[in-house]
Amino acid sequence: MTHRLKQYIGGEWVSSTSDQYTPVINPATCDVLAECPVGSLEDVDLAVKAAVAAFDEWRSTPILSRAQYMYRYKQVLEDRFEDLARIVVEENGKTRDEARGEVRRGIESVDFAIGVPTIARGYKVEDISSGIDETAERQPLGVFSAITPFNFPMMVPLWFLPTAIVLGNTFVLKPSPQTPLSSELLCELLDELDLPEGVVNMVHGGKDVSTAVMTHPDMVGVSFVGSTPVAKIVYETAAKHGKRVQAQGGAKNYIVVMPDADLGGSGRNIMGSAYGCAGQRCLAGSVVVAVGDSYAPLRDELVRQASALRVGYGLNESTQMGTVISASARERIERMISEGVAEGAQPVLDGRSRQVEGFENGSFVGPTILDGVTPQMSVARDEIFGPVLSIMRAADFDEAVQMVNSSRYGNAASIFTSSGRHAREFKYRINAGNIGINVGVAAATASFPFGGKKDSFFGDLHGQGP
Questions:
Q1: Is 178 exposed, middle or buried (0-12, 13-18, 19+ CB in 10 A)?
Q2: Which 3 state secondary structure label does DSSP give 162?
Q3: CB 5, CB 184: distance < 8 Å
Q4: Which residues have CB under 8 Å from 129's CB, separation 6+?
Q5: pLDDT attached to residue 137
Q6: How high is the pLDDT of residue 58?
Q7: Alpha carbon of 137 to those of 122, 131, 235, 336, 452: distances in Å?
């Protein structure tokens, strides 16, 4: 019988009050890995009530004692490192190396939470008035939640959960129903630590469950990572109901390549940015702006390197790019490629209808490069969220900056150059939250906030960081 997932509420694994389930599918093999409950409003209410009941005692637990749980959590995560990575591969479709990188970044967030006591201090001013001192103290607020995406099922929950609970809050996690197995294992490992009941809870489900999490009267704050349309809904809904909210949305990340860049090294960085995780990350490079004389040699170098990438099942160690998340995602990506071609883009490398021997039904899209792209085309404006790279031309640096800043998104942007002046000007002038200088994926480490501007972020407090 297929494994049916349960909710983790009040320190116990309990069946959902809903009798409806959706399949969790391995996108490479099409095997059904488990069945995820659709969930219910009652499930959410039970989870939040358990978190509320645990809050007072957890809040009064010394912060160094709370941090000790994360010391132990880090060790069990290290002990199960390869198991965690394997689950990511199976439910998401990444390669082993990509999954290992994700687990490592998640553990870094646990490391950061261990050190939270050193930055949780308040501040004080003596004699703020005659004979009066004034002190500001940081206090836990209550129940927080995270609604997390399919593309980093292990890492993104750990952006929020460890820091929230070390600071004395309690927590409700709502993972993506497409990739819930990673979160199940994260909660199983927490359960091994004898964390007090109700400090961390997990509910499965889709849109209705997410809405219930956002609107529950006892929920204090909501963290979200996902697409821009949904991020905007989360921001509006949570704010309307008086919650703290950080909603990180989608992206259209530009990479500028100057004529003085090292084309070989730049190309390798761009490969990792555009095709790592099959392009399914909010920091993926999706538009290359070739400046001046760099255009023709850069295009040829990108086609050469992308053509050589080995596409296959992520559990095979030789695979360099895995699947996209589902058959419907593959269809959407291929449709968007076709729309770009219809608008005039030239597919100098076409990944549509890609098949892998032994995995003919898998959700594979090969590395794709579209040349001759202009700012008006849909492939230059809209998030594709797949292994598709568009090439645009700019006459000079100023035109390249204008192209980058014309995007409605502002998650990340990178430049490849040997010019210190252009590097500084790029950092100074580009309206994006994560800036890379000769770096293809400008991903913030756990102690720095994950930036985002314009339609890539809604809220005032970014994920991660202090």
A1: buried
A2: helix
A3: yes
A4: none
A5: 94
A6: 98
A7: 4, 20, 27, 51, 28
Q: What CA–CA distance (Å, rounded) separates 334 from 446? A: 34
Q: How deeply is 292 buried, as exposed, middle or buried, from its count of CB atoms within 10 A (0-12, 13-18, 19+)?
A: middle
* Non-local CB neighbours of 87 within 8 Å, separated by 6+ positions: 154, 181, 182, 185
By three-state DSSP, how is residue 291 classified? Answer: strand
Q: Which amino acid is at 132?
A: I
Tens-place pLDDT, residues 16-53: 999 999 999 999 999 999 999 999 999 999 999 999 99
Helix (H) or strand (E) holding 211: helix 207-215
The model's pLDDT over 197-224, given as tens digits with 9 standing for 90+, comes to 999 999 999 999 999 999 999 999 999 9
- For β-strands 253-257 and 412-416, DSSP reports them as parallel
Q: Helix crossing, 263-275 with 295-307: angle to 10°?
A: 50
Token code pair at residue 250 = 């989608």
Taking the C-alpha atoms of residue 348 and residue 260, their distance in angstroms, rounded to an integer, is 24
Residues recognised as catalytic: 282
Q: Helical H runs in 115-178?
A: 155-166
Round the CA-based radius of gyration of the chain to a whole number and report it.
Answer: 23
| CA neighbor of 285 nearest in space, from 273, 267, 300, 298 | 273
Q: Helix count (H) and strand count (E) of the chain?
A: 14, 21
- The residues, ordered by sequence, that sit 6+ positions from 39 with a Cβ below 8 Å of its Cβ are 7, 16, 18, 203, 204, 205, 206, 208, 209
Q: Sort 227 into a burial class: Cβ within 10 Å, 0-12 / 13-18 / 19+.
A: middle
Please give the Cα distance from 362 to 343 (Å, whole number): 28
Report pTM: 0.95
Question: How many other C-beta atoms lie within 10 A of the C-beta of residue 262?
Answer: 14
Asked if residue 1 has pLDDT above 80, the reply is: no
What's the whole-number mean pLDDT along residues 103-108? 97
